[in-house]
Amino acid sequence: MAGQKTRKNKGSDDFNLDEYIREKAQGENASNSFTEEESQVPGNSYFLRNSAVIVAVFLAAFLWYFDWNPNNIISYFFDEAEPELVTVEPSTNVVEPFTFEFGENDFDFDFDFDFDTETPPQVDADAVPLDMTFTEYLTALNELGYLELFSSTSQQTLYTNNIPIEYLRQIGDAGYIDVFSGTSLVTMYQNNVPAEYIIQLGNGDMVDSFSGTSISTLYGNQIPLSYLEGLRDIGLMDALSGTSIVELYNNQVPIGYLKNLQDADMADSFSGTSLSILYTNQVPAEYLLGIKNSGALDGFSGTSIVTMYQAGVPLEYIQSLSEIDAIDSFSGTSVAAMYSNQVPIEYLTSLKNLGLTDEYSGTSISNLYNNGVPVSYLEELRDLGLLDNMSSSSVINAYKIDGDN
Fold first, then answer.
1. In this predicted model, what pLDDT tens digit does every residue of 200-234 receive, in sequence order?
2. What is the DSSP code (8-state) at residue 351?
3. N or C: which end of the chain has fewer CB within 10 A?
4. Would you say 371 and 86 are in contact if contact means Cβ atoms under 8 Å apart?
């Protein structure tokens, strides 16, 4: 083996292979353990750091919302919801209310049509038909000259509703048969309206003003002919229905009161209900005339006018609202509320110029004014885009909070 080469180990002659493998295994385990710890520790650190940032941002936003003022925070959570009223000196331009003398009006009418109500015409739906055939009925109408006045449908309507030829003859002899349709004649007959009542209406030149239904309503409510004649004489007859006339009479609205309104061309501006409300609440014609002259009459119902009158709202205040073109924005209740709370025309003019009179009721405007909220503050909120989402109470609260800072 002399030619054989021998390789020497570069390490120690005492090299132990088992020990070497064990040490390498421990080194890898230690490295893995260090890596796991390194990956866990930064995770916890990031979570804590992110949480701290979120809390800090929230607190900053919270304090910023309250202008960094702890008093605002305490006020927001613990003060009462209702804002404290701010005393504002009333404007000197508010005019004083005035009153009218309401004169006595006589109302003494009798139902001056006397006839036998104990034996009304037979109108039972199951009544025995007329003692004649339909052909005989048509023949009778023809002999009286009435046949051509009625269509075939009206002829059948008269016959099937048992309208006596005599009833038609009485109305026809007076010259009023051509005023009514078959349906109107049936309505009056079935409501027990005597031919005599119809004739008297005709003699008073009033029968053309009413339908059969209206005449039945007038008669059934025993409206005196003298009351109707009064309406006719002042030119108001054609403007009122039978129901409206009944309401006027039942509320004892005198012809004299209606004449004052008619002379001022105002009576036909109201229904019978509104006219009755105005008179019952003693609203003088002069007050209505003043509203009309201001151009505001068409904007108010009878109830609204009564509300303003009873609140003492003077005509000058209504006229001023009309002049600034704001009268159409308010009801009678709103006008009364603003006047009673001494809201000056200057304040309303400023609101109108900003286009805000349509945004708030009279009560809301009164609250804004009485809490000292200037129009300039409303303008500021509007320019910031906040006003559309704020009620008047919210505006008052905001103004109070801003005023404390």
1. 999 999 999 999 999 999 999 999 999 999 999 99
2. H
3. N
4. yes
Spatial distance between the Cα atoms of 59 and 73, rounded to a whole number of angstroms: 12
Cα distances from 41 to residues 32, 35, 52, 53, 104, in angstroms, run 14, 10, 17, 19, 100
* Cβ-based neighbours of 37, under 8 Å, separated by 6 or more: none
299 touches 308 (CB < 8 A) = no
Total residue count of the chain as it appears in this document: 405
Using only C-alpha atoms, the chain has a radius of gyration, in whole angstroms, of: 46
Report the alpha-carbon distance of residue 203 to residue 170 in Å, rounded.
Answer: 14
Chain-centre distance for alpha carbon 394: 23
Cα(369)–Cα(353) distance, rounded to whole angstroms?
16
Helix (H, G, I), strand (E, B) or coil at 99: coil
pLDDT of residue 53: 60
State pTM to two decimals. Answer: 0.63
pLDDT in tens, 64-117: 544 454 544 544 444 444 333 333 344 444 444 444 445 555 555 555 545 444
* Among 279, 249, 243, 247, residue whose Cα is nearest residue 261: 279
Q: At what angle do helices 272-280 and 302-310 cross, to 10 degrees?
A: 10
Joined together, the tokens standing for residue 165 give 């030829």
Rounded Cα–Cα distance for residues 271 and 285 (Å): 15
Characterize 35-74 residue by residue with b for buried, 16 or more Cβ atoms within 10 angstroms of its Cβ, and e for exposed. eeeeeeeeeeeeeeeeeeeeeeeeeeeeeeebeeeeebee
Q: What angle do CA 340, 345, 266 make, to 5 degrees?
A: 75
DSSP secondary structure letters along 376-389 = HHHHHHHHTT-GGG
